[in-house]
Automatic annotation (TrEMBL):
It comes from Mycolicibacterium anyangense. The lineage of its organism: Bacteria, Bacillati, Actinomycetota, Actinomycetes, Mycobacteriales. InterPro entries: ARHD_Rieske_2Fe_2S, Rieske_2Fe-2S, Rieske_2Fe-2S_sf, Ring_hydroxy_dOase_asu_C_dom, Rng_hydr_dOase-A. GO terms for molecular function: 2 iron, 2 sulfur cluster binding; iron ion binding; monooxygenase activity; oxidoreductase activity, acting on paired donors, with incorporation or reduction of molecular oxygen. Its cofactor is Fe cation. Residues 57-163 form the Rieske domain. This is (2Fe-2S) ferredoxin. The keyword Iron applies.
Amino acid sequence: MTTSLPRQDRIRRAIELLRHDTTDKFDDVVGFTAQEFIDPVLAQEERDYVFGQVPSIVAHGSEIAKPYDFLTVTMPRNNVLVVRQKDGSVKAFVNLCRHRGALLEQNEKGRCRFFSCAYHRWSYDPDGSLRMITRDNTFGDIDRSAQGLVELPCEERHGFIWIIDNAHASINVAEWLGPEMDTILAGYHLDELTCFRAAGFDEPTNWKIMQDAFLDGYHIQYAHPNSAGKIIHTNVMAFEDFGRHCRFIAPRKSIDRWLEEDPGDQPLDPYVTETHFLLPNSTLLRQPDHFQLLTFRPHPTDPTRSRMEQRLMVPPVEASGLEQSHWEHRWDKNWQILLTVLHNEDFPLLRDSQQGMGSADAGGMLLGRNEVANQVFHREIRKLLAQGRAAT
Ligand code: FES
Ligand SMILES: [Fe+2]
């Protein structure tokens, strides 16, 4: 495993691995148990010590591009309302009215100059401050500044909106990413791309089973023999471990032309997909001409359920040189291909895995030395849980 070689050299390393029919590996296999996917106590710890402590991505900035654009998201600990402010910054709040606790904003997305509660019509400004109490003389002289929306730590960086799902935490995304991943993401200029489409899927599967499947270069030819398996090599990963986050290059089959012949100075980018794991719950896929983000979030109460979100980040139509209809057609096609593979091939397998994990006598299971990114994911989640337990 190497770190921070120039990209063309990292791709050449993937070619070398392919030539020798091997992959980067860890030294040991790692065990895990079925309990980790069904235990409600562990699920509570994950909500508090993972999502309540560290930043995770909730959207691409272009999804709420203009002032007063908002979106809502169900995080593991809070219902959240994310609002683009008048000055262009982004704030996140607990999506709950401070009168009697009604869900303040019901819609998934929209634009709103003030948020008005459906129950007794208290209203709030986009910056979260309490704007109006209906029949306010009946409340008398209360401290209005104490009844604004509860703010959550939120930061926009590298084009994405990040939140820590805990009003008492403070956020520093650069520090969380660390120098390597922060520099890598900065180099992608993701803020110059636009989110072509975002969609979420509620699945009867623990979030870690879901996340594991999208860090896995080992299942491709077996689970996807007629789709991804035809395009991407199985179990060939040129891997870099940054200690918290990681990334790996997987060669496409089109790269085979360079197995015999030296590619010389040919740019090799079109022949690979690069997968980034952003702890705690995202896979960012760098494709030759766009990015895909896959995010996995635990259900607020049930360890056997989760929500996956899929996003496609592409050059905006003006920058693409394409006509609007071509641009839409092109990315729509791309979106549908990914969606079909997920829904027809991955999701059914993963639902069945969850069912299997409910077996009382499941026995221990293993992550192979080749399952490098999965090992990082399991290792780092365990670390966060241990830190959380030690702090309480
Ligand atoms: S609960 Fe929102 S105004 Fe009463
Ligand atoms: Fe898959």
